[in-house]
Design goal:
- With about 350 residues, this protein is an alpha/beta fold.
- The chain has 12 helices and 8 strands.
- The chain has an 8-stranded mixed sheet, sandwiched between helices.
- Helix 2 packs across helix 12, helix 3 (about 125-135) packs across helix 4 (about 150-160) and helix 5 crosses helix 8.
- The longest helix is centred in the last third of the chain and has 17 residues, at about 235-255.
Amino acid sequence: MSPTYALKKPLAALLTLLALSAPASASATPVYGEQLEGFTYPWPLHHFEFHSQQQSLSMGYMDVRPAQQANGKTVVLLHGKNFCGATWEETIRVLSQQGYRVIAPDQIGFCSSTKPDRYQYSFQQLADNTHQLLARLGVKQAVIIGHSTGGMLATRYALMYPDQTQKLVLVNPIGLEDWKAKGAPWRSVDQWYQRELRLSAAGIRKYEQQTYYAGRWKPEYDRWVDMLAGLNGGPGHQKVAWNSALLYDMIFTQPVFYELGDLKVPTTLMIGTADTTAIGSDIASPAVRAQLGKYAVLGKAAAQRIPGARLIEFPGMGHAPQMEAPATFNQTLLDDLARP
């Protein structure tokens, strides 16, 4: 585990040069390093150094101690595919103010963490990496909260480590259906890679507005668009795109849907009902696309599959209720965590 991350001067100079030499039309989008160097995290960023698959890796994380009297509980926040630990900012602030210790890691392949040249991605591997981090930090049991792809990871974590999972909270998790089994076409890793190489701020914004925010947009969302576009457009462009391709293949081919009934920990589903996120829907036929990503239905079905699950719906909200309506979401989350 290393001290708070500091941007190295040579890389900082390179990023500045890239930003200054960018075309005028792209000048509004920042340029970030391969591990999101240059992006400001809301709390000190640390790195967990460990060995996995015959290589040394570095996992970025925030470890935010309670702002007031500690309540003795730890919450682990797991980010989604197009998100980072930093996108939990408002939730981290509220939880820490209420006495929780909050740990928000960036998974390998994402954001401030290593982008390996080669890595056999699996949700089991990412769960094991997270478990190692928590062990290093002395956390024996925690509330595991996962959003989007982080919901798939949180589910896998709870299946692997039920004794270390005090409670599971899934916020608009993907993986509540098997897209492939429903007819969404498979992409090769090479096809995903070519797709990711073409990412732009405009494309990210259009997708997120349509899918994540039910057609609405707020200026504060631009920061997160710039975060992704700046990472993808920086000096690590090809490595970022390659790891993203590998991660999409993991998401599409490793469903947790069939094991929801095996969960043995208290579970809450927090669902924005207007969400339409579905991997592969962009290249599916109209008939298949019409059957995917119906969260108003998927949330209820998942609650029935998970033993004893509690369902909380946010009517009309999209894929990220914690960002769309943070005050409402965070109070709802606190109330749920306070339940016996």
